[in-house]
Amino acid sequence: MSDDVAGNGAQGATGTDAVKAGLARMLKGGVIMDVVDAGQAKIAEDSGACAVMALERIPAEIRKAGGVARMSDPEMIMGIQEAVTIPVMAKCRIGHYVEAQVLQALEIDYIDESEVLTPADEASHVDKRAFTVPFVCGATNLGEALRRVAEGAAMIRTKGEAGTGNVVEAVRHMKTITQDIRRVASATPDERFAIAKEMAAPLELIEWVGLHGRLPVVNFSAGGIATPADAALMMHLGAEGVFVGSGIFMSEDPPARARAIVEATTHWDDPEVVARVSRGLREAMPGIEIGELGEGGLLQTRGW
Amino acid sequence: MSAADARRPRIGVLAVQGAVSEHEAALADVGARTSRVRSAVDLEALDGIVIPGGESTTFGLVAGESGLLDALRARVDRGLPVLGTCAGMIMLASGIEGGGPQPLVGGMDIVVRRNAFGRQVHSFEAPVDVPALGDPPVRGIFIRAPWIERVGPGVEVLAEHGGHPVAARDATRIVAAFHPELTDDRRLHRLFVEEVRERSAGTEHEEDTVVGAQ
Fold this sequence. Notes:
- The complex is a heterodimer of chains A (304) and B (214).
- Chain A has 304 residues and is α/β, with parallel strands linked by helices.
- Chain A has 13 helices and 9 strands.
- An 8-stranded parallel β-sheet of chain A has the order 8-7-6-5-4-3-2-9, sandwiched between helices.
- In chain A, strand 2, helix 2 and strand 3 form a beta-alpha-beta unit.
């Protein structure tokens, strides 16, 4: 980006719904990769990632380290912004709107208000309508997704269970959202009042989903994707793209695996391509059985 | 091609990554049949192609390795009509500024600056006057958008914004830095499909026509 034109916001109306949700549309069919430094960001870009998520530690490391996980150091985020031309995302804690303001001041391209970090507010998520920068938020079902959209989220992702290399939770969340949408679409208008109450989602958004048969914003999958076949599976289930967190840089051969997951996401409905790119990738990240985590070890139950 | 088919030309949408379904909906609205292009074989029997918005580095890499990029370049160079929006405009440019070298389709005599309007917080919408589309102005949605730095003699500028060309065309290519596919305005898609129809009516295959040297 050329500095002499950056900041030229007087070109038109910034931060409109169309502009915020529009960037998510441009990311569709792509892979967004977690990276912790400029070197990893470059590997991700050179592997065909459509965006990177800058964070200090990938979720599997956050799990191991324990303690409070916060927004990343701006210095590290800026280093990644300098290294690549693709969009750079970063995470703020749930409800921590000052972290979000800091990320907007850094001109991050998308903010992930993420359950992977330790929540900062037990009652409220960030009022995302107040920001120029768009937000992506996690969801486990339709009601949660629509609550986030009502708060101004311009993109949704399934939560899955980050840092496990186990895709089962992402599958559950994607199927739940799809089933919820089918239920709303087949409901009569009067039944939708009851569904809005049951799902704790705004009636207007329930009605919108009933009319269109989909979420009002782009829906990606995240949390536990570790192989090209995992990515293709999520696309089969209706994801419009995938986030891969620990799955790439916790594996034995990150550039090859990153490249393979990108190919599998583009060619998700061609098993021959998925088979070809899956060959010889060496070890995937070590996986964790969800039952081993216990209630307290789950990240997906953060946020509401 | 039969006369009936010529009225409903087959337009491919490059579907490596990006806003594919939005272009499919727009093309269907103006009477085209659409198909997704992920491999070189998908280029067969197309009357035109759209390169959508998305990440141009992803397009170049994924399409480059499979041979799709070379096949697409060959078809476009031989005169297959093409519409490119945002990343699609970058892919069709003969030169890029504001980023390292990257695989392109190329062939259009324009130099494009990537992310010229800035990062996402500077993305914007604004009315854009496009005389070739008549009144009213187009609702221009610019997302981390490029602009055109320089145009060659065979290129007509269709629109400017903030003093920079943001839409252009030559004999077979139409490019825009903004995203008409994100709006309900179908005029640019109609213009493109009309040109595909005229071309299809005039000749069996684009290979038979002489296209100006690049």
